[in-house]
Amino acid sequence: MTIRVISFDCYGTLFDWLYGIRSVLEYLFKRDVLEEFFECEREEISTFKHYSEVLCRCLRRLMENYGLTYDDRYCEALVLAFAKSPPFPDVVPGLRLLRRKGLRLAIISNTEYGLIGITLTGMKEFFDWIITAEHTGYYKPHLEAFRRAYGFMGVSLDEVLHVSAYPYYDLEPARKLGVKTLMIDRYGYSWSPKVKSLEEVINYIK
Fold first, then answer.
1. Structural contact between residues 178 and 157, judged by C-beta atoms closer than 8 angstroms
2. What is the mean pLDDT of residues 111-127?
3. How does the average pLDDT of the chain come out, rounded?
4. Whole-angstrom Cα distance, residue 27 to residue 140?
5. How far apart are the C-alpha atoms of 12 and 22, rounded to whole Å?
6. Residue 157 CB contacts under 8 Å (≥ 6 apart), including other chains
7. pLDDT at 205 over 90
8. What torsion do the CA atoms of 76, 78, 79, 80 make, to the nearest 10 degrees?
9. DSSP string, the chain
10. How many CA atoms lie within 13 A of 57 on its CB side?
11. The model's pTM
């Protein structure tokens, strides 16, 4: 069936979330603790809680591990830096191409609506649906996160292409549901098919 809907992961695929998170962590820790932070994040999203709480819990744990004094103001800085993640430079041109093609676009994101609303300031017009873990009650890669998201959208899975930079969180579970997948190569992961830029996605629409 012809692709009529494209769903996207948000952070790391459309927006450079590492930019803001890394800057706050480097300010607080004076060293690279990004991988330790995301190890905690992966543990925390095994059960649903608001993503702002996930960020704060991991920051508190990491600061305690390094003998630093935690304060809510540091979490406020981290959450805001995350929410203000900038779009990758290919994103606006790529989304505009897809809208001109008449495709319906969606975001399925491991976050909460208040945060993604900040991230998408000036860009909400591109998307027909913006669905978060707050809506589904599940974090990706849980299959139910995708089932509920596509259920909310009311679309047939064979008309959807899911695009992400992450095989584990997005592409593998989407493929298990029978959804077509495409990776944007932001971090060097292995997946087929893949593209280097969002502007190339239009070439996979038939």
1. yes
2. 97
3. 97
4. 29
5. 13
6. 150, 177, 178, 179
7. no
8. 80
9. ----EEEE--BTTTB-HHHHHHHHHHHHHSS--HHHHHHHHHHHTTS---HHHHHHHHHHHHHHHTTPPP-HHHHHHHHHHHHTPPBPTTHHHHHHHHHHTT-EEEEEESS-HHHHHHHTTTTGGG-SEEEEHHHHS--TTSHHHHHHHHHHHT--GGGEEEEES-IIIIIHHHHHTT-EEEEE-SS----SSEESSGGGGGGG--
10. 14
11. 0.95
If we measure between CA atoms, which residue out of 84, 82, 67 comes closest to residue 25? 82
Question: How, if at all, do strands 104-109 and 5-8 pair?
Answer: parallel
CA gap 189, 187 in Å, rounded: 6
Side chain identity, residue 98: L
Q: Give the residue carrying structure tokens 């997946």.
A: 191
Q: What is the pLDDT of residues 70-115, one digit of tens each?
A: 999 999 999 999 999 999 999 999 999 999 999 999 999 999 999 9
State both tokens at 86: 């900038």
Residue (of 147, 181, 193, 138) closest to 8 by Cα position: 181
Q: How far is CA 102 from CA 13, 56, 185, 192, in A?
A: 21, 40, 25, 25
198: number of Cβ within 10 Å: 24
